[in-house]
Design brief:
Layout lengths: L2 H10 L5 E2 L2 H26 L4 H8 L11 H4 L4 H25 L7 H24 L1 H6 L2 H20 L4 E2 L2
Antiparallel strand pairs: 1-2
């Protein structure tokens, strides 16, 4: 192998010298999840007449009796749904925040661009692929404009937190 080929191979296989800490993805994912939940609850309250509708629809993934609930039932407070939906949303928010931080060093360009595209994109892909399989109710009643706004809120808050966190030396 020539010196140019060796140098090119080393460049292709190189690891970034500095990366964002996983903590930034964890905290950013948590904050983004709160922003997303607020957007969904506000939407539910203003346009669907109940802040509990989005919570109950998310919880229907595991609380299968909610799959057959009437719109009136879905609009009511349900403590089990609040706990299950909150835990589910929280775990996904944290996981996708950490995944974002892991992916970010491999992406070209500015982190701000990726913050407003990758965060929402991860949620959309996860939702479009899994929602029909695990939560048919959610697929039936999803409101795409509010869905997009909530996911953009997640991505913007996640990205803002991550890009404002100092990078650390990669190990």
């Amino acid at each position: 192998m020539t010196q140019v080929e060796v140098s090119q191979r080393e460049t292709e296989l190189s690891v970034p010298s500095h990366v964002y800490p996983l903590r930034a993805g964890f905290i950013g994912g948590a904050l983004g999840g709160v922003a997303m939940a607020l957007a969904a609850v506000i939407y539910g309250a203003l346009w669907r007449g109940s802040p509990w509708l989005p919570v109950n629809v998310v919880a229907a993934t595991f609380l299968r009796d909610l799959q057959s609930a009437s719109p009136e039932q879905l609009a009511q407070f349900n403590a089990n749904a609040l706990i299950v939906g909150g835990l589910m949303h929280g775990l996904l928010s944290l996981s996708l925040g950490v995944l974002f931080v892991l992916l970010l060093p491999t992406l070209p360009g500015t982190p701000v661009f990726w913050a407003i595209t990758v965060g929402p994109l991860l949620w959309v892909v996860a939702t479009v692929i899994t929602l029909p399989l695990i939560n048919p109710l959610g697929e039936r009643i999803i409101d795409w404009p509010s869905f997009i706004v909530a996911h953009l809120a997640y991505g913007l808050v996640l990205g803002f937190k991550v890009v404002r966190t100092p990078k650390v030396r990669a190990r």
